[in-house]
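Extended Data, record Substrate-binding domain-containing protein
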Amino acid sequence: MGKTVVFVAATMTNPGIAGVAKGTSEAAGAIGWNLQVIDGDGTPAGINLAFSQALGLDPDGIIVAGFDTKLTSRQVRQAKAAGIPLVGWHVADTPRPGAGSELFANVTTDVQDVARISAQWIIAESGGSAGVVIFTDLSIPFARNKSQLIKRALEDCSGVKILSTEDIPIADSSNQTPQRTASLIGRLGDAWTYSVAINDLYFADAAAALHDAGKPGDGAPLNLGAGDGDPMAFNSIRTGHYQAATVPEPLLEQGWQTIDELNRALSGKPRSGYVAPVHLTTIDNIDGATYWEPADNYREHYMQVWRR
């Protein structure tokens, strides 16, 4: 045991990444590994510096979370040359990186399933008649792909109109989203009835502008987060505070999975291939949850696997 692992985060202001980091920290402690989290602060320069700092620690493995590894191609080559395995979270479009990928594994739900259930909820809730705004971050390939899939699924319903696609970097959401939201209200008026975002964070940042415009917290536009299902989003759904639903990732469990995948890589075993099932959280099934936990025994399961 006693491995050293570094978690390189695109930005820890992304609550999805922060949730996964929390689960990774839990798992590292359980397996007896040392974990260090380095924040890329949401900029290409910061992410490059964070990855370089990770390499400087001479770790046994690196987890990369929430950014395009093309930004850090030099560091990726260095990691490969040094025999340091890389595990991603929301780095590639697919949970199963293809041959030649720099990643040993990419931990995520199936983005096509997430897109499908997100679009289906909006279509069903609106009776097939909705004016939708999409919030995304086109700088992240995973997020770009997700929002494009959602858009296509919504366009399959003739009564749904895509009113706008707002490209806002997650790292700058707190600055840009309030202003964009106010502008959208002024431009679209009551035609804007639903929103879908690739991350719940956008709705926390939009809430003040919606409130100032006199929009009710439990009324139109009804907001759906197509990821990541952080505690703030769960609370907003529970209290009817400018979010109606989320398609959450099992963030804590995925944190444990990142450690399991690294353990497999370091043990010369194949990746697990596990992909968590998709889930929709609304006021009808939220109960007292703060994270989505698809199984309540995954910690014990992983501990048993690691003791073999």
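Summary. The radius of gyration is 19 Å.
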